[in-house]
What we know:
alpha/beta, Rossmann fold, 3-stranded mixed β-sheet, 12 helices, NADP, Nucleoside-diphosphate-sugar epimerase, oxidoreductase activity, NAD(P)-bd_dom_sf, DenD
Amino acid sequence: MHIAITGAAGFLGQRLAQQLIQRGELRQQSITQLTLIDQVEAPSPSAGTITVVSRAVDITQPHALDEVLDQRPDVIYHLAAVVSSAAEADLELGMRVNFDATRSLLEGCRARGMYDTRFIMASSVAAYGGALPDVLDDMTALHPQNSYGAQKAMCELLINDYSRRGEIDGLVLRLPTIVIRPGRPNAAASSFASSILREPLNGEEAICPVPTTLEMFVMSPGKVVDALEHGAQVPREALAPFRAFMLPGITVSVAAMLEALRTAAGEQALALVKHAPDPRIEAIVASWPARFETAKASQLGFVGDDDFTQIIDSFMAEQHP
Length: 321
């Protein structure tokens, strides 16, 4: 089996690659090659019997992925994206990376008759927005209120239609906000949700730019990567009629997140969180819904976190094994 990952140098891509290799070796699965694709060369994990190829390419350029697609990967994880705040600040960049490159990738699959390739794209809670019910389900209409969400929503429709036509075997996983991300803050509007926990747990100050009453729909990195891996195993007949759905996150307020921080690390950690309202960040994040019914994901075997304490405990265990 040949698996390709775009956005492979990002934290999610790196973690997915490592897990595929580790579990592939342990289970003696038939993964023979892993192709890692990003604008910079992605780290190549030790892979034993699995061939790992890292390619530094700009996926927005014509024919950038021809050589990879000519090898007809069995699974493509499309994780490459310009994140929310950056896509809002630069419409042309967001369109090139988030939409145009996705369409080119789909067209490349179609031109090669790759109808059996499982094409898995990471979408986002940002695809929703506007006037919404208190609890959403997978068929709630998409009314994104920012360019990033609009670009993801357009890609969802394309992937579903290419799958309906038998051009690919597509699957779109709408990701909750991922908490706690490792590393440093990035340009995503939701980046604060990790930094207000990660930095204090490491003894550093962090800025909370939103009201503590704001609720978010979140999922841990480990459960997201488990879901991506599981997505390659779901039978195609189980995915129709619409191949995009929300993963099973949990609803939590910023206040509850901070309380979990205090419980885990004490008052001294909580005191490191400074509150500085940022209307731009709040406008984007507040447009994302926080309560979902995720029956389809559960029926298909996707599993979320038990509670927010588990998310913090998992992060701390990874940081201090």
